[in-house]
Amino acid sequence: MMYQPRPRRPIPPHPNYPRPSMGPAPKKPNSNIKGLISKFSTEDGSLDIDKITTTAQQVKQIYDQVGPYVTKFIKKK
Hints:
By secondary structure, the chain is mainly α. Helices cover 48% and strands 0% of the residues. The chain has two helices and no strands. It is flat and about 70 Å long. The protein starts with 30 loop residues before the first helix and ends with a helix. It comes from Aquibacillus salsiterrae.
């Protein structure tokens, strides 16, 4: 005969803690995008294409190095 655990009683919510509301998620301001664009802008306000290209190449190099390990880790599960 297999061991069968007893069913647990549901725990009632604590009266001092309010229940979370399922309202809409708060919207984040666009300041993150403006901050990111400011990192790739020159002093006169135009976009620095060389800096964008260099950063994109660095991101690709990092992805090429780390990607195989991430893939192995994900497939392992």
